[in-house]
Amino acid sequence: MKLFKKQFVLLFILALLIVGLVGCSEKEKVMKVAHLHGTFDINVDNVNEVVGDADNVFVGYVDKIEGTEYKFPVTVETENGTKEVTSPYTNYSITVVDNIKGRLKKNNSIPMQKSGGISEDSDIYILYEDDSLPEEGKYYIFNTYNQPDGSILISGPNSNIVLNVTDKSEIVSSKEYKKYKEAVKNEVKTDRKRFSSKYSN
């Protein structure tokens, strides 16, 4: 599910230009969304490949959105001169309720980062196609990646799947939970360099 940094930056710039051409009046208050088309190493619509590529598959509860971090700055030419653009990453505090794959610490709020979010100038939301940002107060199945520094990244389509439950007791009987439990048994593992998380047992 990895997208090379260079490709991401180019796609990000393209998305900004497209949104700029489509445009919206400064008087409009509705936030626009720019969708990035990613080139992934797996079929993101095949659940067995998604869980096989991920380091961790778990049910998590979104405690809090902790703001946005901006990475990979590049300078681009616009009709109004040069402009620096960055890639947004949204920070979260998430409690792991149940590990389906991996051994993340349960029942503690863990910092995690999702690729995508509001742009640095607060004009648009930047997301991969068919992707969404997790919302506070909801349960999700997360497919995440351990980073070289031990942190955890949520990235790409099908990296967070909302569970339509109102209570923890409903999770194990949900259709999505059963689907991902079965998928882990039949995972298609990818051959890539993997890292350990500092939030694992």
Description:
It is a single chain. With 201 residues, the protein is an alpha+beta fold. It has a single domain (5-185), classed as OB fold (Dihydrolipoamide Acetyltransferase, E2P). The chain contains 3 helices and 9 strands; from the N terminus they run H-E-H-E-E-E-E-E-E-E-E-H. It has helices at 5-22, 47-53, 175-185, and strands at residues 32-36, 56-78, 81-101, 109-115, 117-118, 124-128, 139-146, 152-154, 160-162. Strands 2-3-4-8-7 form a 5-stranded mixed beta barrel. Helix 2 crosses helix 3 (175-185). The radius of gyration is 18 Å and the shape is globular. Residues 2-14 and 16-28 have low confidence and may be disordered.
What is the percent of helical residues?
10-25%
CATH topology type? OB fold (Dihydrolipoamide Acetyltransferase, E2P)
Determine and state the CATH class: Mainly Beta
Tell me, briefly, the overall form: globular
CATH architecture: Beta Barrel
Q: How many individual β-strands?
A: 9
- Strand count, sense and closure of the main sheet? 5 strands, mixed, barrel
| pLDDT < 50 stretches | 2-14, 16-28
Q: Could you state the oligomeric state of the chains shown?
A: single chain
Indicate the structural class. Answer: alpha+beta
Q: How many discrete structural domains?
A: 1
Distance linking N and C termini = 25 Å
What is the number of helical segments per DSSP (H or I, 4+ residues)? 3
Q: What order do the SSEs take from the amino end to the carboxyl end, as H and E?
A: HEHEEEEEEEEH
Task: Describe, in short, the structure shown.
It contains three helices and nine strands. It has 201 residues and is an alpha+beta fold. Strand 2 (56-78) and strand 3 (81-101) form a beta hairpin.
